[in-house]
C-alpha cells in the first residue's frame, strides 16, 4: 500500500510532493494529438504569411505590416507556446519553480501582442474608411513600424510587471512540490488587456460598418453617373471596404477564441499550468493563430498567389521580390 502511494507522488522522496494528477483520455488526445497537429499547421501557415509580406515588395503596405506583426505573434504561439504547453500538461512539473515562471512568460507575451496588433489594425481600417483623404499622410510605413515596435515592447514590459509577484518569491503560490501555479490578477488584466482594447476595436469597427454601409448605398445610387476619375475613387473605396470586411472577420474570430481566456482571468484565480481548463484555453489560442492565415487564403487572392510562388520555389529566382502579386 505504501509503495502504491509513493508511485502516485511526483517526488516520492519528499514529504511535500504533489500527487500525480490523473488524466482523462479526452485530455490525452487533446494534448498529444490535436495540440501538436494544430501547432505544426499554425507554424507553417504563418510562416507563409511572414515570407509573403516580407519578400514581395508590392505587399509592403502599412496594413500588411500590421498583418505581418500579427503573423509573427501567431507563429511564436505555434512554435514556442504550444510545445511548452505540452510540457506543462504533464502530470508533474519537474523543471523547478523558476522554469515554471519563465515558461509562462511566452504565452502571456503573445496574447497582448496579438490584442494590440488587432487594435492597430482596427485604427488602420478606421482611418482608411472614415478619413480616407488623410490616410496616406497619417498611416505611413515608418509610423506603422514605430507602433509595431511599441506594441512588442509594451507586451514584454507589461507581462514582466504582470508576473512580478511570481518573480519576487518564486514558487510562493504552489501548494506542494511538483506543481506549477501562476498567480493572475484577473481584475487588472482584464481591464487593461481586454476590456479597454476590445472596446476600442468594437467602437472603431461599428463606425467603419456605418460608414461602409453609407458608402455602399451612395455608390449604388450614383453608379450610372460615375466618370473615369470618380470610377478610380470608387475602385479604391471598394478595395478598402473589402480589406475592412476581411479584417473584421479576423477580429470576430479573435474575440471568439480569446473570450474564454479572459473569462477565466476575470475570476482572478491561480492558473494551474497543465490543468484541463488551462490546456483548453491555450488550445483555443492555437486555433485562433491557425485560423488567421486560413482567412487570408480565403479572402486575399494575393496570399494564394504568394503561396504558389513560395511552394514552387519561384521566390529563389532573381528579382522575384518585384513580382506583381496584386491585381
From TrEMBL:
<dbReference type="Pfam" id="PF00001">
    <property type="entry name" value="7tm_1"/>
</dbReference>
<keyword id="KW-0297">G-protein coupled receptor</keyword>
<feature type="transmembrane region" description="Helical">
    <location>
        <begin position="276"/>
        <end position="299"/>
    </location>
</feature>
<feature type="transmembrane region" description="Helical">
    <location>
        <begin position="190"/>
        <end position="213"/>
    </location>
</feature>
<feature type="transmembrane region" description="Helical">
    <location>
        <begin position="65"/>
        <end position="84"/>
    </location>
</feature>
<keyword id="KW-0812">Transmembrane</keyword>
<keyword id="KW-0807">Transducer</keyword>
<keyword id="KW-0472">Membrane</keyword>
<feature type="transmembrane region" description="Helical">
    <location>
        <begin position="29"/>
        <end position="53"/>
    </location>
</feature>
<keyword id="KW-0675">Receptor</keyword>
<dbReference type="InterPro" id="IPR017452">
    <property type="entry name" value="GPCR_Rhodpsn_7TM"/>
</dbReference>
<keyword id="KW-1003">Cell membrane</keyword>
<keyword id="KW-1133">Transmembrane helix</keyword>
<feature type="domain" description="G-protein coupled receptors family 1 profile">
    <location>
        <begin position="45"/>
        <end position="296"/>
    </location>
</feature>
<feature type="transmembrane region" description="Helical">
    <location>
        <begin position="147"/>
        <end position="164"/>
    </location>
</feature>
<dbReference type="GO" id="GO:0005886">
    <property type="term" value="C:plasma membrane"/>
</dbReference>
<dbReference type="GO" id="GO:0001594">
    <property type="term" value="F:trace-amine receptor activity"/>
</dbReference>
<dbReference type="InterPro" id="IPR050569">
    <property type="entry name" value="TAAR"/>
</dbReference>
<dbReference type="InterPro" id="IPR000276">
    <property type="entry name" value="GPCR_Rhodpsn"/>
</dbReference>
<feature type="transmembrane region" description="Helical">
    <location>
        <begin position="246"/>
        <end position="264"/>
    </location>
</feature>
<protein>
    <submittedName>
        <fullName>Trace amine-associated receptor 7g-like</fullName>
    </submittedName>
</protein>
<comment type="similarity">
    <text>Belongs to the G-protein coupled receptor 1 family.</text>
</comment>
Amino acid at each position: 500500500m505504501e509503495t502504491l502511494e509513493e508511485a502516485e507522488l511526483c517526488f516520492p522522496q519528499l514529504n511535500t510532493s504533489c500527487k500525480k494528477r490523473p488524466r482523462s483520455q479526452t485530455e490525452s488526445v487533446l494534448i498529444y494529438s490535436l495540440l501538436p497537429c494544430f501547432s505544426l499547421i499554425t507554424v507553417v501557415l504563418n510562416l507563409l504569411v511572414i515570407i509573403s509580406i516580407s519578400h514581395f515588395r508590392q505587399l509592403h503596405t502599412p496594413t500588411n505590416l500590421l498583418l505581418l506583426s500579427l503573423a509573427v505573434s501567431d507563429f511564436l504561439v505555434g512554435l514556442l507556446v504550444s510545445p511548452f504547453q505540452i510540457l506543462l500538461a504533464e502530470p508533474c512539473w519537474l523543471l523547478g519553480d523558476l522554469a515554471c515562471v519563465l515558461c509562462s512568460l511566452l504565452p502571456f507575451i503573445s496574447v497582448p501582442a496579438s490584442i494590440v496588433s488587432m487594435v492597430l489594425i482596427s485604427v488602420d481600417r478606421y482611418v482608411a474608411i472614415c478619413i480616407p483623404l488623410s490616410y496616406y499622410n497619417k498611416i505611413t510605413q515608418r509610423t506603422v513600424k514605430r507602433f509595431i515596435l511599441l506594441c512588442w515592447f509594451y507586451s514584454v514590459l507589461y507581462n514582466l510587471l504582470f508576473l512580478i509577484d511570481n518573480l519576487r518569491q518564486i514558487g510562493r503560490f504552489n501548494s506542494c512540490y511538483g506543481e506549477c501555479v501562476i498567480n493572475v490578477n484577473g481584475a487588472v488584466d482584464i481591464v487593461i488587456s481586454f476590456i479597454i482594447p476590445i472596446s476600442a476595436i468594437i467602437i472603431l469597427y461599428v463606425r467603419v460598418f456605418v460608414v461602409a454601409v453609407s458608402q455602399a448605398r451612395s455608390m449604388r445610387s450614383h453608379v450610372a453617373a460615375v466618370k473615369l476619375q470618380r470610377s478610380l475613387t470608387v475602385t479604391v473605396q471598394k478595395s478598402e471596404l473589402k480589406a475592412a470586411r476581411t479584417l473584421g472577420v479576423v477580429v470576430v474570430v479573435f474575440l471568439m477564441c480569446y473570450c474564454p481566456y479572459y473569462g477565466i482571468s476575470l475570476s482572478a484565480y491561480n492558473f494551474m499550468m497543465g490543468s484541463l481548463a488551462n490546456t483548453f484555453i491555450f488550445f483555443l489560442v492555437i486555433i485562433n493563430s491557425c485560423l488567421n492565415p486560413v482567412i487570408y487564403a480565403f479572402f486575399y487572392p494575393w496570399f494564394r498567389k504568394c503561396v504558389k510562388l513560395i511552394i514552387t520555389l519561384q521566390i529563389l529566382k532573381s528579382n522575384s521580390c518585384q513580382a506583381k502579386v496584386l491585381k
